[in-house]
Structure formats: structure tokens, C-alpha cells
Specification:
By secondary structure, this protein is of the alpha+beta class. About 25% of the residues lie in helices and about 25% in strands. It has a 3-stranded antiparallel β-sheet with strand order 1-6-4, with no helix packed on it. The chain has a 3-stranded antiparallel β-sheet with strand order 3-2-5.
Length: about 130
């Protein structure tokens, strides 16, 4: 994964940053905080979605990693938490699911494949507005 080209930071790099703490530009930590849903917690959002430390997922060559500054909860996330009518965990087979289809943030890292900027912006705008 390609990241922003920056001068080496005098700040030591960490594998996990506290919520609200911003990593040095271009550094992708190994772990992140996320409101995760696990199958054994399916139920109302206040029990299904719990803040956990999870691995930062690697991105593919044609993807970007967004440092999310704000995210929304809508009925897609509520249904995912309830596991009704189907659990998203049955579809992707990961041990947890991070709900969300609305987010705003900063493109923090990009894959190795060259993608026109307007394509990324349009995709992000459609993804955000489509829910």
C-alpha cells in the first residue's frame, strides 16, 4: 500500500492510537478502535455495537483507506446489529462486522493502482449518500 510521502517524524510510531489522537501523516497503525458487532452480541445497538480494538484491514491495489472523522448510524447498522433478517457475519465470514455506510474523513493511504481522483471522490460521495 502506498502512503503519503512525508519527512520522517520525530514522533515515535505506534501500533494503536487513542480515539481522537491522530497518527503522523501517512502512518497506518496495525490496530484501530471500531464499533464492532459480533454474532454472540446480536441484539439492540447498545449491546450489539461495542467499541473494540481490531486489526486495521489492508487495502487492495484499487482501494483507498479513509481516516474516518465522523460516521453515522442508520438502519443498515441497526439491522446488522440485530442480525435480522440476516447477519452480515454470515456473508463475509469475518469474526466481527463494522457497520456503517455514512462517513466523512481524509484519504490516508492509497493502493498501488493509479485511480483518477474524480473517480474516488464520486465513489465516496455515492457511497456516503446511498447509505
Amino acid at each position: 500500500m502506498a502512503v503519503a510521502q512525508i519527512k520522517p517524524s520525530a514522533v515515535p510510531l505506534k501500533d494503536l492510537y487513542d480515539i481522537g489522537e491522530v497518527p503522523p501523516l501517512g502512518h497506518v497503525p496495525a490496530k484501530m478502535y471500531a464499533w464492532a458487532i459480533r454474532k454472540e452480541r446480536h441484539g439492540p445497538p447498545e449491546t450489539a455495537m461495542q467499541c473494540e480494538v481490531v486489526p486495521t484491514w489492508p487495502i487492495a491495489d484499487d482501494e483507498v483507506l479513509v481516516y474516518v472523522m465522523a460516521g453515522g448510524v442508520n438502519y443498515n447498522g441497526v439491522w446488522a446489529g440485530l442480525g435480522v433478517p440476516v447477519s452480515p457475519l454470515d456473508g463475509h465470514k469475518h469474526p466481527f462486522h463494522i457497520a456503517g455506510s455514512d462517513a466523512s474523513g481524509v484519504v490516508w493511504a492509497v493502493g498501488t493502482q493509479e485511480i483518477p481522483a474524480q473517480c474516488c471522490l464520486r465513489t465516496l460521495a455515492l457511497k456516503t449518500s446511498a447509505g
